Amino acid sequence: MVPKIRRGSRTHGLLVYLYGPGKRDEHIDPHLVGSWDGFAPDPGRDTSPDPDPKATLARLAAALDLRVKQAGTTAPAEHVWHCSVRTDPGDRTLTDAEWNTVAGRLLHAVNLAPEGDPDGCRWIAVRHADDHIHILATMVRGDLRRPRLNYDFKKAQAECRRIEKEMGLRRLKPGDGTGAKTPTSAERFKAERTGRPEAPRETLREAVRQALAGAATEEEFFTRLREAGLRVKTRTAPSGDAIGYNIALPGDRNRHGEPIWYPGSKLAPDLSLPKIRLRLAEGVAERATSSAPGGRADWSPPARERRSATGVVDRAAVLLDSDDDEAAVQLVGVGELLDAVAQTSPATIRAELGEAARAFERATRSHVRAERADTRALRSAARGIVQAGGALGRGEDGGTTAMLVSTLVLVTLAAARWHSARGHAQQAHASRQAAEHLRAAYRQVAAMPMRVLHDQGRALPDAERRTHEATIRVILPEQGPRADSPSTKNDALIATLAQAEQAGHDPDTLLQQAIDMRELDTAVDTNDVLVWRLRRIAQLPAHPGEALRRPRAGARPTKTPANRVSERNALTAAVRPAASEPRSRPPRR
Questions:
Q1: What integer pLDDT is reported at residue 372 of this predicted model?
Q2: CA nearest 583: which of 440, 464, 461, 477?
Q3: How many of the other CB atoms lie within 10 Å of CB of 573?
Q4: Can you tell me the distance from the alpha carbon of 524 to that of 473, in angstroms, rounded to the nearest whole number?
Q5: Rounded mean pLDDT of 293-302?
Q6: Are 224 and 156 within one domain?
Q7: Which position has the higher pLDDT, 291 or 456?
Q8: 137 and 206 assigned to the same domain
Q9: What CA–CA distance (Å, rounded) separates 380 from 96?
């Protein structure tokens, strides 16, 4: 149940709209379901011998405005309180009596017409559709004083949550006042008329977020906005210093042909110029070289930056798992990184990543404040991804994109747990939504490299394959196949372990290191997560079709198959139960 509150100064004008046909003939059978005394005239159902809807409507307006006129100059200029209340499309249809109860409870909750108060404000509730009503109240009490309307929207929201529970309606998630401002009805209708997929406010909010992703200075931020084709103007103080900014879409004009400007603070609470300056003041981490740490010369800049960002995101997930309030700042950095990835990723997954960034935007804001905020690593990763340019959907670019997106899934789920622990229902839901979009993007971008890895794993010699299967069975028993039942679900992981061994790593130690990095409980496919962790920490190409990396100088020599088998048997024997079932025994060598 969603309440929407507005204020105005024309009681008669609002009544004309409520009892009229609507803008698209959507008003059907408009009638009263409740009023301040239960005897207000109803223009929709006038039962007098000679009904005159216009005259009845005028009488109703005069009755509602009676106290406003009596109060004279002490009445508020905007004396009309208007609240529309709508149920969810999946909810049952409420009766007129139930809607009357809803209206009375909301008016009591916001202190306009407290129950049992004879001096409460005059009000009516009009219904002209199955799923919603409009409540109109005039804000002058019977004693000609103004009602106390502090935080009326929050109080109405809280009462709606209680009504949903008691009436068996869909229970929405409570907010905390940190959400972005939603488009008005006029903005949505205009977008429909002009053929826009969304209201300008939403388009501008996304554009500002993307321009802010990884920006180092205020000047760079404004330059990115202008390069995106947006109209930008700054508000300056008498001293000449900028104190704010306004932004408009080209072609979005009012009836006078003037651009429609939106201040940053009206797009989202954290997009005002002072809030942006605080974020920019944190800066970005300095890099010793232009390439990501550990990047190979034959990898493209987008691939190197994505590989580097994966490690940064993994550390952010660890901080969120620590359940510390200081981790709140990591959410802002993850949001910037998602915006950077969404605008530079292959076209095939850009839409899903864009939806993930949009959803997670809600998860970046809450009332929790970090005193020792530091997002330099995440902002630096976002900046590197933006500056590296667009990534291809194939080769190392595609592989590192899959590697990064896989880790982003886990960090958004960590964000959901962090918010849930603090009762942030909307932010937790937004985090889970972002994770679903990221999973969809991952399935697309990871399909090719994982298919190649599966083929490579199946093509390994039987002896080498059994050796790596034993490694998985001992270190990660729930993922390993039974000794008497070979499985193909580990093919990609087996291929990665074989390539890591060829590059000079010990597969046992490497796999344990990948497992210990952080939890695997939230992974849909543990094998996929471990594959990308192994390929990152072993510096293997993210795309398995690339040439294998040569053994590093000073790296431990690769063990011979005989030595590997001997050590595997010893390790398996050490963890084997004294009286094991035949199926739990290691394979014969």
A1: 60
A2: 477
A3: 9
A4: 19
A5: 72
A6: no
A7: 456
A8: no
A9: 57
Residues 490 and 512 in one domain: yes
Q: Distance between CA 425 and CA 158 in Å, rounded?
A: 14
Per DSSP, the chain holds a count of helices (H) and strands (E) of 22, 8
**Domain contains 65:** yes
pTM metric for this prediction: 0.77
- Give residue 516's domain range: 450-584
The first and second tokens of residue 132, run together, are: 């919603």
* Pair of tokens at residue 379: 């902002």
Residues 277 and 353 in one domain: no
Find the CATH number of the domain harbouring 70. 3.30.930
State the SS3 of 284-328.
CCCCCCCCCCCCCCCCCHHHHHHHHHHHHHHHHHHHHHCCCHHHH
Q: What is the largest CA-CA distance in the chain?
A: 105
End-of-domain residue from the set 445, 478, 509:
445
Residue 554 maps to a domain: yes
Q: Which of 107-116, 186-195, 245-254 has the lowest mean pLDDT?
A: 186-195
Report the distance separating Cα 82 and Cα 5, nearest Å.
Answer: 6
pLDDT greater at residue 325 or residue 438:
438
Tell me the residue length of the chain.
589
Tell me: pLDDT of 178 over 90: no
Give a yes or no: residue 589 inside a domain.
Answer: no
Q: What separation, in Å, do the N-terminal and C-terminal C-alpha atoms of the chain show?
A: 66
Burial of 290 (0-12, 13-18, 19+ CB in 10 A): exposed
When divided into structural domains, the chain yields a total of 4
Judge if 332 and 364 occupy the same domain.
Answer: yes
Tell me whether residue 16 is in a domain.
yes
Backbone angles phi, psi at 449, to 5 degrees: -60, -35
